[in-house]
Amino acid sequence: MNKLRRFTVSKLAVTVIRVTLRSKSAAQRPSAPLGSRLLTDPDDVFKHNMWDHVQWTEEDKENAKQMIEENSRVQVSLKEQGKFDTEACHYWDKFYEAHQDKFFKDRRWLFLEFPELLPTGAVRQTTSTCYNPAPASSSDPEAGRHQGSKPAENHRDTDIYSDASCEIATAGQNGAATFPGQQASFRILEVGCGVGNSVFPILKNIKGTDSFLYGCDFSQRAIQLIMDHPDYDDSVCHVFVHDLCEEAASFPFPPRSLDVILAVFVLSSIHPERIQGVVNRLSAYLKDGGVFLFRDYGRYDLSQLRFKKGQCLSENFYTRGDGTCAYFFSKEEVHDLFSKAGLEEVQNLEDKRLQVNRRKKVVMRRVWMQSKYRKSSPPS
């Protein structure tokens, strides 16, 4: 009995020491609700597969800069670059034809990082308390996302969902007809919804609340996969094909009607010269007090360093082997992007993590941006 008691006391003491060390370390780091697994002892690096809030040395930053300079030295020719605009729809449809809905895992972490997705007073249904952004089939959290640049010329001719949505939106804005979700008091739009890896966790959590979810994606094949899913419920959800880069394209709801816009690993796949216009147009659909939730690739992320010569389209903008594209944001760029759209900063963080392959004894530095920007209410 005494031995058991001494063992219990000893184990408790070790736990207290670990918590104390973690608290001291956390006090020296930027406060952020992005996880609490902090690497306080370098010898512990292979004890877990992910560490949060990892601080970079000047040497780490310089090595990353040199790798980017090297892989950006040879760029895709101007003659070839055009196809990544005009054939974007083709590339994404091929992606979903090959992978269907098996490539990414559902984002059950959404409500831990973005509680704004729930209306006031609603209770989160998911029971998972851990955050693991890694997908089922890739070292990148979102290795290629669901919003290209300009579509192929014949895409709009065959896009039955976009045409229908345009008609509904026009009628709704003119007050001549209702629009999907009009009766809801809380409305969410996910742009670049893909095959529903955010849609279905959100639907699970908004059931029983007076909420409605919209989802749009560049790929008609992806939207069809959502609509064919057994958990799709058109009484609380409306998904449609939409090209964010098409300035004249309408949404199936009027301006100033959304409480939340969610963009997770989607803006990075748009040409950097188009992104500001996209954010400006989307922001017009937020209510006063509505919030824009953003998570995407950060500058010097491992996936940027892995690109080879000849894959760079322009500064910090690359094309993958399957024709999809990726841009890597800095914290300052993100702030300018949303501020110029008339939104106020609530959160703008660099989520720096250390991803670990314990079997191969390899460490990988990941950088993701996570931001929240609010549309301010006009003065009373």
- Main sheet characteristics: 8 strands, mixed
Strand arrangement, major sheet: 1-10-11-6-5-2-3-4
Element-by-element helix/strand order:
HEHHHHHHHEHEHEEHEHEEEHEE
In terms of per-residue confidence, which ranges show pLDDT below 50 for 5 or more consecutive residues?
Answer: 13-33, 126-176
Main attributes?
alpha/beta; eight-stranded mixed β-sheet; 13 helices
Blueprint (SSEs and pairs):
Blueprint: H1 2-27, E1 50-51, H2 58-71, H3 78-81, H4 83-86, H5 88-99, H6 110-113, H7 155-158, H8 160-173, E2 186-191, H9 199-206, E3 211-217, H10 220-227, E4 237-241, E5 258-264, H11 272-283, E6 286-297, H12 302-305, E7 312-314, E8 317-319, E9 325-327, H13 331-339, E10 343-357, E11 362-375
Parallel strand pairs: 2-3, 2-5, 3-4, 5-6
Antiparallel strand pairs: 1-10, 6-11, 7-8, 8-9, 10-11
Structure description:
With 380 residues, the chain is an alpha/beta fold. Helices cover 32% and strands 20% of the residues. It contains 13 helices and 11 strands. It has an 8-stranded mixed beta sheet. Strands 7-8-9 form a 3-stranded antiparallel beta sheet, with no helix packed on it. The longest helix is centred in the N-terminal third of the chain and has 26 residues. The protein is globular and about 55 Å long. It starts with a helix and ends in a 5-residue tail after the last strand. 39% of the residues are buried.
